[in-house]
Write a structure and sequence with these properties.
Layout: E1 31-34, H1 42-50, E2 55-57, E3 62-65, H2 70-77, E4 84-87, H3 90-101, E5 112-116, H4 118-124, E6 131-134, E7 156-161, H5 168-175, E8 179-184, E9 186-189, H6 196-204, E10 207-210, H7 214-224, H8 228-232, E11 236-238, H9 241-249, E12 255-257, H10 263-275
Parallel strand pairs: 1-2, 1-10, 4-5, 4-7, 5-6, 7-8, 10-11, 11-12
Antiparallel strand pairs: 3-9
Helix pairs in contact: 1-10, 3-4
Length: 278
């Protein structure tokens, strides 16, 4: 998706960062700020650089694994009791599969694993699972239209997620008859990030912000402190309508929604920002 009134996008050669003519897709005029956790930034930063953008990695979110309590550990031991296992993020997939594999050298048979988004699916791809991936969208609600999740009487579902995640998916599945449990594997914390490089970039020229979660945006606003109003003037690329609405409520007006968090879709959206009429 794009901002209202923006031109459509061509998918040509986005993965290489170059157009069909071989030219970089991005002008290189604006610095693109990547706010993903430090260990996940390269998946967006490297394609952005290949597309011609100067990139500033500024992590506004850190992933902190948490130790499973006795109730959560019991859910790991009871893995074969669940009909469906849903991973809502790459972090949930990575940490959850590592924890489960310690107890389950072979996965339970006839168990369906579901992944929210291609990035989560990629994190699960090499584990030998009976896996189905929601290819479009970046929210857990994407799964709710799937036929296998409509009638869930006496079915059990385990959702792998971070601490205090959104309840919409679990609540809806319960309304459809499922018994839903959570395996909470990490918490999202605000890192001790120095904003000086961002302030220098703002002084030097145009800046485009990218944010892929509400927590990341909240932390960016906290870190900005008295400079928050300067950030609100920058184009902000988000990855869902829900996140766009939240950003709008926080005073960001120049909002652009990418089709997904993938590097290809983010680059296409940034290219549209650069091509718009001044």
């Amino acid at each position: 998706m794009t901002a209202a009134g923006c031109p459509g996008h061509s998918p040509a050669a986005v993965s290489t960062g170059r157009s069909v003519t071989g030219d970089p897709l991005l002008s290189g005029v604006a610095t693109v700020v990547v706010t993903r956790p430090a260990n996940q930034a390269a998946a967006l930063s490297d394609p952005l650089r290949a597309a011609g953008a100067p990139v500033l990695e500024l992590p506004t979110l850190a992933i902190q694994p948490i130790e499973l309590d006795p109730a959560q550990r019991q859910r790991v031991l009871d893995l074969d009791h669940y009909d469906f296992v849903i991973c809502v993020s790459p972090n949930a997939a990575q940490l959850g599969l590592e924890a489960l594999a310690d107890y389950w050298p072979q996965w339970p048979v006839r168990q369906q694993w579901l992944a929210v988004g291609p990035a989560t699916g990629a994190a699960m791809a090499d584990w030998g699972l009976n896996l189905k991936v929601a290819q479009q969208g970046a929210t857990s609600e994407t799964l709710l239209d799937w036929p296998e999740l409509q009638q869930l009487h006496q079915r059990r579902v385990l959702i792998l997620r971070g601490e205090g995640g959104r309840e919409t998916l679990g609540q809806t599945l319960r309304q459809r008859g499922a018994r839903v449990d959570y395996l909470e594997l990490y918490r999202r914390v605000c890192p001790d990030t120095d904003l000086t490089p961002l302030l220098r970039a703002l002084d030097a020229g145009p800046v485009i912000l990218t944010v892929t979660s509400g927590d990341g945006l909240r932390n960016l606003m906290t870190l900005a402190g008295p400079d928050l109003d300067r950030l609100r003037l920058c184009p902000l690329v988000v990855v869902s309508g829900r996140l766009a609405q939240f950003a709008r409520e926080q005073g960001f007006a120049d909002l652009w929604q990418a089709r997904s968090p993938s590097a290809a879709d983010m680059i296409q959206t940034i290219a549209s920002i650069e091509k718009r009429e001044p």
